[in-house]
């Protein structure tokens, strides 16, 4: 089934877009004009579009006011009970011009419309049964009412909480106990509100939902909307959201990117999928106006926290592994839809050779001036800042910590470090070695020349000499540049009479509070973009 939606072009003209499924997601940065676009879509097709505001009241009366279906429908769609002159343009509903910031208090109206719709369905069925009785014909099967559809959707998201509408009152049963609908949690109430809104709307409408994720727990959010979409599969659902997780989970929905709104017109573009970039990552970038830095780790890791403090003018995207950082940075640079943005990657040094680093730099992927991000907690500037924080008068503790890193940790692991560095650089050479050929003989020749290309003895000697010379010089910053040891930063706290596990958290707190010594010190070891 195809759906249509009218959208504004940048020149002010209107274009009708065809969609091949019943959901569209509008994304864009804060202030890009997403909600205003939703209001424009509704205003341009008043009869066929119903918009659910982001500013919605979750309050309703204990007993639902019963009205006729026509009265309830008019109240739901237009804000008044009587037949509406369309010149009002839903002014009653949107407080006469406050189309995007009105608090809409229509929970009871939506519930009233559900009951009225159910009553109308029952009346039609009974009338049909009576006609068949008079004609001596058998009855049709009892149809599923809109209220039963509401119960069914509710049970899919709250299977242990039974909801009923009895005698114009919402009641929920949980653990053999009943409680009133007005006593439900915010999450339960918003779920009921959204279900009622979407089921009460007449057939074949476009339903716009501004911020469909508000007050909904992530575990039920997607299940709720997919269940509603399934029941109302003849309606087009248009979601306005900044929740990229929600947007990406609607994998079959078209995504419309609001690039810009100048107060008069929108710059809109449908999002093209990118096989090399996860959709949520792509949507994150499109929903942000800043240039992007891809980094290792997760949103909760030390990497991300440090980068967000140092690179405040950039959008930091944690990607997990260094391979993802490399792939995503390349993908954004190659994506024509993102030509207006610059993407950079920052990864740990991790025994990389100068040759590999030069190649990565050419792709706007940069390595740290230390072996790994955790070593930033061990740099001399940070040690001195912690020493000052505790008001120690001398730098004996700083020197003891430095000696521990060099003499106790690095010197005892140097053989392992040399082996790891050698392995890493051989892997890169193998990865970058071209074995293609025009025939089998030429390929064989390249394989036979592989040992000469790598020259293991020279490589191992060069790496070994470099590590041993660094140890001999006791150059602390050079040690941190090549010493790749994950647990190093979590063993420093003891030198400042602080729990080792709390040491890194203290450094991050000082950084967030604007400690200049830590900020300037860390920045020295990070790329200058």
From TrEMBL:
Record domain ATPase AAA-type core: where: 183-246
What Pfam family is a match, any one? AAA_21
One biological process GO term for this chain? double-strand break repair
Q: Which InterPro entries match?
A: ATPase_AAA_core, DUF4435, P-loop_NTPase
Q: Which residues cross the membrane?
A: none
Taking every annotated instance into account, which residue ranges of this chain make up the domain DUF4435? 292-510
Task: List the GO molecular function terms.
Answer: ATP binding; ATP hydrolysis activity
Q: What is this protein called?
A: DUF4435 domain-containing protein
């Amino acid at each position: 089934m195809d759906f249509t939606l009218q959208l504004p072009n940048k020149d002010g003209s209107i274009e009708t877009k065809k969609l091949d499924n019943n959901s569209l997601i509008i994304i864009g940065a804060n202030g890009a004009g997403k909600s205003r676009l939703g209001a424009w879509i509704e205003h341009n097709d008043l009869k066929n579009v119903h918009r659910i505001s982001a500013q919605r009241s979750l309050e309703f009366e204990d007993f639902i006011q019963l009205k006729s279906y026509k009265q309830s429908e008019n109240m739901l769609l237009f804000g008044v009970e009587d037949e509406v002159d369309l010149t009002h343009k839903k002014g009653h509903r949107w407080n006469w011009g406050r189309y995007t910031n009105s608090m809409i208090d229509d929970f009871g109206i939506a519930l009233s419309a559900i009951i009225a719709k159910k009553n109308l369905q029952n009346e039609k069925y009974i009338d049909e049964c009576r006609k068949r009785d008079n004609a001596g014909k058998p009855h049709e099967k009892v149809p599923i009412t809109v209220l039963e559809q509401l119960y069914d959707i509710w049970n899919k998201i709250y299977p242990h909480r039974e909801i009923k509408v009895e005698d114009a009152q919402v009641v929920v049963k949980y653990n053999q106990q009943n409680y009133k609908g007005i006593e439900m949690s915010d999450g339960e109430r918003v779920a009921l509100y959204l279900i009622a809104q979407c089921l009460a709307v007449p057939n074949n409408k476009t339903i716009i939902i501004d911020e469909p994720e508000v007050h909904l727990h992530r575990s039920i959010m997607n299940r709720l909307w997919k269940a509603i979409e399934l029941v109302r599969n003849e309606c087009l659902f248009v979601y306005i959201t900044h929740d990229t997780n929600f947007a990406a989970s609607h994998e079959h929905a078209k995504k419309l990117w609001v690039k810009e709104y100048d107060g008069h017109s929108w710059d809109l573009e449908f999002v093209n999928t990118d096989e090399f970039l996860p959709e949520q990552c792509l949507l994150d970038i499109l929903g942000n106006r800043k240039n992007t830095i891809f980094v290792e780790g997760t949103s909760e890791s030390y990497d991300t926290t440090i980068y967000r403090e140092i690179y405040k003018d950039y959008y930091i995207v944690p990607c997990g592994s260094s391979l993802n950082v490399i792939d995503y940075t390349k993908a954004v640079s190659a994506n024509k839809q993102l030509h207006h943005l610059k993407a950079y990657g920052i990864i740990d040094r991790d025994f990389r050779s100068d040759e590999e680093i030069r190649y990565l730099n050419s792709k706007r992927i940069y390595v740290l001036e230390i072996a790994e991000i955790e070593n930033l907690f061990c740099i001399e500037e940070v040690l001195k800042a912690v020493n000052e924080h505790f008001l120690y008068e001398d730098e004996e503790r700083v020197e003891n910590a430095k000696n521990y890193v060099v003499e106790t940790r690095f010197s005892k692991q140097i053989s392992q470090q040399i082996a790891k560095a050698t392995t890493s650089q051989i892997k890169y050479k193998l990865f970058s070695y071209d074995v293609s050929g025009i025939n089998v003989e030429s390929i064989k020749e390249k394989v036979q020349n592989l040992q000469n290309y790598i020259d293991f003895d020279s490589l191992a000697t060069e790496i070994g000499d470099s590590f041993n010379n660094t140890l001999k010089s006791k150059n602390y910053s050079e040690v941190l540049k090549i010493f790749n040891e994950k647990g190093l930063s979590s063993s420093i706290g003891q030198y400042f009479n602080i729990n080792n596990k709390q040491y890194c958290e203290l450094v991050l707190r000082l950084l967030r509070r604007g400690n200049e010594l830590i900020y300037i010190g860390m920045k020295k070891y990070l790329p200058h973009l």
